[in-house]
Amino acid sequence: MLSTDLNDLITLTGPGTPGGNMFRRFWIPACLSKEVAEREGPPVRVRLLGEKLVAFRGRDGRVALIGEHCPHRGASLYFGRNEDGGLRCLYHGWLVNGEGRVTDAPAEPDPSVICRDARAVAYPTHEVAGIVFAYMGPPEKKPLFPAYRFTTAPENHMYVTKSLQECNYLQGLEGECDSAHLSFLHRALRGPLANRTIFTSRKPQYSYERTDFGIRLIATRETDDDRLYVRISSFVLPYGCWVPARNRELHMHVPADDTHSWRFDLGVLDHPVSETPSIDDRGQFLDEDFRKIPNMSNDYLQDREVQKHDNFSGMKGFLAQDSAVTESMGPRFDRSQEYLGQSDAGIVAVRNLMVKTIRDLEKGIEPPQVVTKAEDNIFTHVDTCQVTIEKGEDWRKHLPHVAAPKAVPGAPLPPFPDPEGSLRRETGTHVR
User: Fold this and answer.
1) CA distances from 192 to 147, 188, 216, 315 (A)
2) Where are the beta strands (DSSP E) in 195-292?
3) What pLDDT sits at residue 283?
4) Given this model, what pLDDT does residue 32 score?
5) Three-state DSSP class for residue 27
6) CA distances (Å), 185 to each of 136, 165, 181, 333, in order?
7) Would you tell me which of 35, 172, 260, 304 could form a disulfide with 253, CB atoms 3.0–4.6 Å apart?
């Protein structure tokens, strides 16, 4: 269990909260690039960390993220006109640019004072892999965007989906860090998948190691032929987990507010993909507002006959299955009421790290994985895999860049896929 105070610490992320301050030290997903694809096109509403924002793409092609309310009298800029380098408020024509500055107040005889002093909230953005990321923290603390593997992957090797989760972000995130649930929630009862080790061997052995990006989670299962199935996931502070889905996916659970979150799934493939639906069917289960069609109101379209014969849950698709268990916990789960077991070792490690990171920040200690120097910005060793090996074999042989020595400072990023041995791993205490 987790005390009520600690549960509040890591689940409350609004402005001024310790958890919110921690999130604001990182680049976080704000929206998909395709939502603001058109230059001078319509803006979109964005809700992040309890704040109401709007995103828009300007004439120069850059995406801006500013507060939704006009600094004049609070009308919503979502209804504004995207023109002349900003959003022009419908109420009195004030023009707010991507930096939150008022550049025109046409109803005023002399707009110079207003243009000098009036400001809207504005946050820097970074666009990569079909996602617009935002930095919402103190300007003087703005870090470099982490050099993850997907920053160098070819565009046609990636896909991304987004969905609204009707619960606190941590409920979804903890599911990503929990290997035991795969043997049950996602289990196939018949067909070619039913005999996979992840379904037939249901008591994984856990270990984990502290890294410079978060925690590496290792789960091993014995196979029917007396070998080991090894599943490696990487928890990346404060909201992400790399998991071995398809090739590799980064699942990011970002707080919209304390009772809703956005799930971004970014897939990185070793081969080209022509379009998202051929690889990922999650988009078929979402409406135009990224709300799930199988949802709480219709019991996630659970079919009890399917549950008897085809799969453990009676639900179609990982997204519906994941959401059914995480959203049914309630809008923000009270972890003082839970009862943990040995299979929750990774969850405990993740929570402890988040508590420590927040507490350290309260003492003025910045998160160690937030970097401002190019020579320290080496995160291409964050990875995931699933592999079957002989007992006694080291799984790191299958991820050589994870075990490699630290790269030379300032060296260019390796191409994608990574050449063997070119990256690094920074290991903390290994707990069995």
Assistant:
1) 38, 9, 30, 18
2) 205-210, 214-222, 228-236, 240-243, 248-257, 260-268
3) 60
4) 98
5) strand
6) 35, 18, 6, 19
7) 172
| Distance, CA of 238 to CA of 9 (rounded, Å) | 13
**β-bridge partners, 286:** 292
Cis amide leading into 417 (omega within 30): yes
Residues sharing a CB contact under 8 Å with residue 134, sequence separation 6 or more, in sequence order: 27, 28, 29, 30, 48, 65, 123, 124, 125, 126
279 exposure class (CB count in 10 Å sphere: 0-12, 13-18, 19+): middle
Cα–Cα distance between 379 and 147 in angstroms, integer? 5
Burial of 391: CB neighbours in 10 Å, binned 0-12, 13-18, 19+? exposed
Query: Partners of 275 in the beta sheet?
Result: none
User: Any idea how long the chain is?
Assistant: 432
Residue 153's alpha-carbon distances to 10, 129, 165, in angstroms, are: 32, 8, 28
Specify the residue for token string 């964050």.
382
Task: Fold for 27-141, please state it.
Answer: Rieske Iron-sulfur Protein (2.102.10)
**Residues 151, 144 contacting (CB under 8 angstroms):** no
Q: Which of 78, 71, 1, 63 is nearest to 32 (CA)?
A: 63
- In the chain, CATH 2.102.10.10 sits at 27-141
Write the single-letter amino acid at 86: G
Which amino acid is located at 314 in the chain? G
**Segment of 77-91, 333-347, 395-409 carrying the highest mean pLDDT:** 77-91
Q: Which residues contact residue 111 at a Cβ distance below 8 angstroms, ignoring those fewer than 6 apart? A: 102, 104, 105
- C-alpha–C-alpha distance, residues 209 and 389, integer Å: 20
- pTM here is 0.90
